[in-house]
Amino acid sequence: MSDTPVRIGPTTSDLTAAAALLGAGGLLLGLLLPWLAALLLGLPWVPFQGPLELVRVLQDTVPVWVLPLVGLVGGGLLGWFGSADDPVVTVSARELVITQGSQRQRFARSQVAEVEVHEGHLVVRDAADVELTHEKVSGDVGALGEALRRFDWPTPTSTT
What we know:
2 domains, 4 helices, alpha+beta
C-alpha cells in the first residue's frame, strides 16, 4: 500500500471540458442572438424590448464575428473558473484536507471518529457525533470512498 495522498476533485480535463462546453454554448448564443432578437422584436407582447433593440444595434455596428467570439470567450472563462472553485479533497493516512478556493479545512485522524460519503457529500464527525463538515464533493465519489477505505478511515458500521 502506498502512502501517497489521494486527490479527489476537478482535474485539468474536467476544467477543460467545462470550458469547452460552455464556450460552445456561448458561441452558439452569439450566433443565434441577433436572429432571436430580431424575431422577438417583431412580437408586441415580448418584454424587455430595450435590451433586444441593443442587440439589433450591436449587430448593425460591430462585425458579425464579434458576438460569437465574445460568447465563446465568455462561456469558456465561465466554465473554467466556475469549475475551478469546486472543492478538492485530499485523503492520506494522517489527515483529510478539503480545499476550496483559498479556504482550507484540515482534519487530523485523531479528530475524526467517523467519516462517510453520503449522497455526494463528505461527512466528518467527531467522537461526540458532532458534524465537523458536510461538504459537497465534485469529482469521483466512488474514488473518494475507496481512498477512505484504503487509508482505513473510520466509517459508519451501518448506513441509513
